Amino acid sequence: RCSVLVTYFRSMQYRLSASNEKLAVALKQIENLARNDDLTGIANRRGVMERLQQCIHTAQRSATPFCIALLDIDFFKQVNDRYGHDGGDKVLQAFGQLLSSQTRATDCAGRYGGEEFLLVLCDTQLAQAGVLLERIRECSESLPWSQMIHKDLRVTCTLGATQYRQGETAEALISRADVAMYQGKAAGRNRVVLA
User: Fold this and answer.
1) What is the pLDDT of the chain when averaged over all its residues?
2) Helix H or strand E encompassing 191
3) Which residues pair with 73 in a beta bridge?
4) 144 burial class (0-12, 13-18, 19+ CB within 10 angstroms)?
5) Which residues pair with 116 in a beta bridge?
């Protein structure tokens, strides 16, 4: 009887272990879906905001500098209107790939909403951020849009960036980057503005 019970309990233990492994995999997939944007392959608003909060906490403890940037695709509504939502989706996907390829593993690029992206650039001074953002702007301008979507398509972006100030909230920091981005739009778009 004891050997039957031991065999039974081992079998139950094995099944429970297998169920726990499946549950852990499912939980990881759910967490991934909760923090990543399916379309662009980068963080979604929740994921990028979590990274921003982490950087704020680090900066408050150790005075480590960091910057954020807001990126808006210029005239995106016209892309959707002219080339359909499929064309718009391809543009968003291309920006997701571009931002992934240009940022470091410690940074975070996320889709903040619609055609707007938020970049969290850890351990970065504003001048350093400006170099990276200009490179992103130039890359977006020179992507082979005509081959990807339509021969007449040209896509640019406007970026506004700022550096974290000690004691500042995430909302205040984003607001300053937003003002800088809109200054760039008012000045003709397709530019980087540092504030």
Assistant:
1) 93
2) none
3) 157
4) exposed
5) 72, 113
Whether pLDDT at 147 is above 70: yes
Q: Which residues contact 137 (CB under 8 A, 6 or more apart)?
A: 156, 157, 159, 190, 191, 192
pTM of the model: 0.84
Which residues participate in catalysis according to the annotation? 115
CA–CA gap between residue 128 and residue 124 (Å, rounded): 6
Q: What are residue 106's phi and psi, to 5 degrees?
A: -80, -15
CB 72 within 8 A of CB 158: yes
Strand partners, 106: none
pLDDT tier for residue 90 given thresholds of 50, 70 and 90: very high
Task: Reduce the DSSP state of residue 147 to 3 states and report it.
Answer: helix
Q: Please name every residue paired with 69 in a beta bridge, in sequence order, or none if there are none.
A: 119, 161
Could you give the 3-state DSSP secondary structure of residue 36? strand
Quote the CA–CA distance of 122 and 91 in Å, as a whole number: 26
Round to whole Å and give the CA distance between 128 and 67. 9
